[in-house]
Amino acid sequence: MPEVSSKPITSRYSVVIAALTILALLGFLFVGRLVRRFQEQEKAVARHLYTQGLIEQQAGKPELALEHFRGALTYSPDNFQYQLSLARALRDSGRTDEAQTYLISLWERAPQNGAVNLALGRLAARQNSLDKTIQYYHNAIYGVWDSSEQQNRLNAWFELVEVLLRWQARPQAQAELIALSASLPNDPNLLLRAADLCMRAEDYAHAFAEYRKVLQLDHANPRAAVGAAEAAFNLGRYRSAEHYLEAASKENPGDTQITRMLEVSKFVLQQDPFTRGLSTDERTRRIRIVFTEAGKRLESCMNTVPQSSTSMSKDDALPALKAQWQQMDHQLRRLGREGESGLADSVMDLVLKIEQQTSNCPITPQDEALLLLAQNRGGVEQ
Amino acid sequence: MSNFLRVPPELKSEPADSGPEGPVTVRTRSRFLGVAPLSEERFFIIISVFIGIFAGLAVVCFRLAIDWTRFGLLGAAPEPHTLRLIVIPTLGGLVVAILVIAFFPAVRGSGVNQTKAAFYIFNGVIPLRTAVGKFITAAIAIGSGQSLGPEDPSLQIGATLASFLGQRMNFSREKLRLLAPVGAAAGLAAAFNAPISAVLFVIEEVIGRWSAGILGSVVLSAISSVVVVRWFLGTQPLFRIPPLTVFRPSELIAYISLGIIGGFAAVIFAKAIAYFRPRLHALPIPTHYFQPAIAGLVIGLIGYLGAPQVMGAGYEYIDQAMHDQFTWKFLAVLAGLKILATTLSFVTGTPGGMFAPTLFIGAMLGGAVGGIERHFYPHLTGTTGTYALVGMGVLFAGFLRVPMTSVFMVVEVSQDYSIIVPVILANACAYIISRSFQALPIFDVLTRQDGLDLPSLEELREESVLHVEDAMKAPPKPILNSEETVRDAAFQIQEAKSDVFLVRMKPAGWSSITRELLQRFSQEGKAEMTLGSLLPPQRLPYLHPDYPLETALRYVHQTALVPVVSRADLRQLDGVISSEDVLAKYRVAVD
Questions:
Q1: Residue B569 region, left (φ>0) first, then alpha (ψ -120 to 50), else beta?
Q2: Are B354 and B342 in contact (CB under 8 A)?
């Protein structure tokens, strides 16, 4: 009678299964509580270790920070922030290969992440890899940031320009600065930072424009005034330079650099023989002054500096220049006459030569102005 | 008995559930809502799921216990040059030794062999005390820095829980015996978070043979335990796998060299354990109290002097190695130190497993070899992570000698099939080297040292199985046909030396007739009758040439000659076999 004999066994199985199910549920509840408690503890430990690591990192102890970040990751292995900090610590402690591998693994998980790209960019910069540096910095600039997106992007951009300038990669730096300037908000500090970088990149035109923007926003910004003056001065726009330098000089009366540039600017503006609209007599007078000043400088340099220390001593450059100067001095009386239009250029060529050859001698604002006048014939802004 | 014609002999079903306690199978036709009532078979399957769940819960608790112990004893982030690193493993070793000797003597070592012994010797019975003892002692040992892993203890805990459930439910002896590997697979799968590898390992190492009867339960329990572990601890593996680079064919040389180096490392590791374990065990009992403490002291010193990575299971450091956080020189040092530390921990009888240390050594060795190779051949594309992963498989194949598990483990952990070619190649190299220099796999060595003799899959693979074709003879001429008359048949056998002849029946099957019977038919006036009409309807059993010879043993006593026929055409006779042929072949094989 199988039906009869099976009933007790089947019902016993059912009871056992029910009991086991209840037991399993109780087990789930118990283990669930344990696990939650454990995970909270793990997170707390990870946070503590991470904080310790940050402190060590800020204290300039990347090796110790490394250990703490590793410890934090042991308890919270998927925490992106911890991973990134570890990669940075690896980089800062000179373990560039390890840092690179680690960062690339992070990058493969989040190629759009701005912080990871910035870290990779910094690493590439350490490895002097120009293309990769630009690539990763660009990824960071156009990437996704968890917070302060605009600020982080601009910081990355400024940093890229700094790196490029450090490498003397001026064309790339100038290109980045043009794009950066176009993206900057009307914040005097940011504009000033960009203008300073333009100056370092020798992009005086953009520097001047940025300084002027700053001055439009903050009329009394002394740094911007000095910067605008320097930019204008370097651009050969001495009238603008004089304007900003006078303003800056009032703010910084003891600043010798400003004073010097102001003197040079004034001298250039006063003695430039190529200023448009000058009468022939006035132009001749100015050329004579410039020529005389150059002669004085040559004389003084020959007397004060041993020939061996001049730049072309082996060729007896200064005596030769002296002879040329004396010869030109005889011809100078023809200056201003008709048919002698090329003489003014010859005079200025000699002035330029003299100033270049005597560059090792102590230089006065007047000498500097002479050099500028000789270099920028007709290009001086009035 | 016409069905006998088509049913291969070895597939004839054996009576189920016929243990000494008597059959307990429920045979009933009654159904409720179309659901068949529970038989012991089905109940066993359901219990396998519960075993998986309970093993999973136990393993989660075990992992928490280890981590909490480590937090409490060694601190969150052990740093070198801390005195605690020396004191804790030493004291931990002492406590563990006292617990093992005084309260839980059955928990020494890894637990794999104990589970295997339960399956083969103790009818699946493992006392619950074993699981409790293993849980406590292994948690203290691993948590205090002994260089051992949690997987083998988890395997034993799972097996013990399964055995306990089976005993409480009065399962038959046969089922109870099967429960141990079911629980073992659950425990290992939960600990390793890799069900396929766990199932394969249990088949390769615990059961030692492929058995379709148990496979379903083993798989079910392994999967349910993994589900439980993932429920609580998440789906992430024990170590994160970095992106793996697809290898170029020329890089296979690099992986072969990894396999060779790993093979030799595995041999050194296995030989060191095999050499020191019996010697330390043979020392006077009082020294047993101090052996784990001394091991802990040495391991603590290693940690104190700058390599705390070798302490404990070390999964976090495998993770770090795979993510290129160590130089290849340091990785090589760690591999060497881990072999030393694990050997010390294991040979002193400290409870704990060898899975994690094996993976650790493999990962460090793989990373180091990868680092060296990339240093000299920078064009190699393999990352450190790739080499470390292959290295883990290499040590698994070389040290534990579980080639199938080693390959599937790497593929399962990495979830990347592209790595399989270098893994197989490197593992094969390590396996061959290990077998060449170490005759027995480490688990077999340990069982022999413990005075046991348990079968292993490697041994089974080595056995040369005799087949019917090895013993069969050419069929005796002539072969008669059932449509022939007795006269024709008698004429044909006149010249023959044999007294027994096979008859090809129509439409299928074989029968036999003796010279004597043919003569009798002739004398009885049946000379014009066909053989088919005179022979009994019962056909001879037949065999195919590829059957194991032991299968023939079941049939050769029924008839003087058993036909051996082609699988493609059952009427085509390939040979015949008799009991004399079978015995003669076995005699030759034994000699």
A1: beta
A2: yes
Question: Are B133 and B101 contacting, i.e. CB atoms less than 8 angstroms apart?
Answer: no
- Is B551 exposed, middle or buried, given 0-12, 13-18 or 19+ CB atoms closer than 10 A? middle
Distance between CA atoms of residues B573 and A197, nearest Å: 97
Nearest-angstrom CA–CA distance, A206 and A215: 14
Interface test with A, best of B49, B57, B327 (most A CBs within 10 A): B57
pTM: 0.67
For chain B, percent helix, then strand, then coil, each to nearest 5? 65, 5, 30
Interatomic CA distance for residues B94 and B538, integer angstroms: 73
Domains, in order of start, for chain B: 40-233 (1.10.3080.10), 249-460 (1.10.3080.10), 468-590 (3.10.580.10)
Provide, as residue numbers in chain A, all residues whose Cβ is less than 8 Å from the Cβ of B53: 24, 27
CB-CB: which of B77, B236, B383 is closest to A78? B236
Q: How many CB pairs below 8 A link A and B? A: 99
Instruction: Tell whether the model's pLDDT for residue B462 goes beyond 80.
Output: no
Q: Do A35 and B53 touch (CB under 8 A)?
A: no
User: Tokens standing for B428?
Assistant: 């094969």
Chain A hits for B47, CB-CB cut-off 8 Å, are 20
Count the alpha carbons within 13 Å of A235 in the hemisphere toward its beta carbon.
23
Residues of A in contact with B326 (CB under 8 A): 98
CATH architecture classification, A184-269: Alpha Horseshoe (1.25)
Cα separation of A60 and A54, whole Å?
10
* Angle in degrees, CA B345, B348, B353, rounded to 5: 45
List C-alpha distances in Å: B55 to B184, B226, B547.
9, 9, 40
Token pair, residue B208, equals: 């030692």
Please, how many CA atoms are within 13 Å of residue A9, restricted to the half-sphere of its CB? 20
Residues of A in contact with B242 (CB under 8 A): 101, 105
- Chain B residues lying within 8 Å of A6, measured CB to CB: 26-28, 30, 37
How close, in Å, is residue A146 to chain B by CA atoms? 24
With both helix axes pointing from N to C terminus, report the angle between B84-102 and B291-304 in degrees, rounded to the nearest 10.
160
CB pair distance less than 8 Å for A20 and B243: no
Q: In what order do the strands lie in the sheet with B510-514?
A: B480-481, B500-504, B510-514
Query: Would an 8 Å CB–CB cutoff place A20 in contact with chain B?
Result: yes
* pLDDT tops 60 at residue B428: yes
- Report helix angle A130-142 to A114-126, nearest 10: 160
Q: Give every CB contact of residue B87 below 8 A, 6+ residues apart in sequence.
A: B300
Could you give the CA distance from residue B78 to residue A32 in angstroms, rounded to a whole number?
Answer: 28
Backbone angles phi and psi of A144, in degrees to 5: -105, 135
Give me the amino acid identity at B361. Answer: I
pLDDT surpassing 70 at residue B542: yes
**Does the beta-carbon distance from B68 to A38 stay under 8 Å?**
yes
A residues 48-107 lying closer than 8 A (beta carbon) to B? 48-49, 67-68, 70-71, 73-75, 77-78, 86, 90, 97-98, 101-102, 105
The residue extents of the domains of chain A are 184-269, 280-375
| DSSP alpha helix (H) spans, A167-237 | 170-183, 188-200, 204-217, 222-235
Chain A interface includes B315 (CB < 8 A): no
* Consecutive 10-residue averages of pLDDT for chain A (382 residues): 49 85 95 93 91 90 85 82 86 79 80 89 87 92 88 92 91 90 88 92 91 87 85 83 82 79 80 72 78 81 61 61 79 65 75 75 72 62 50
Upper half-sphere CA count for residue A144 (Cβ side, 13 Å)? 6
**pLDDT computed for residue B12 by the predictor:** 36
Which of B67, B71, B323 is facing A102, going by the closest CB pair?
B323
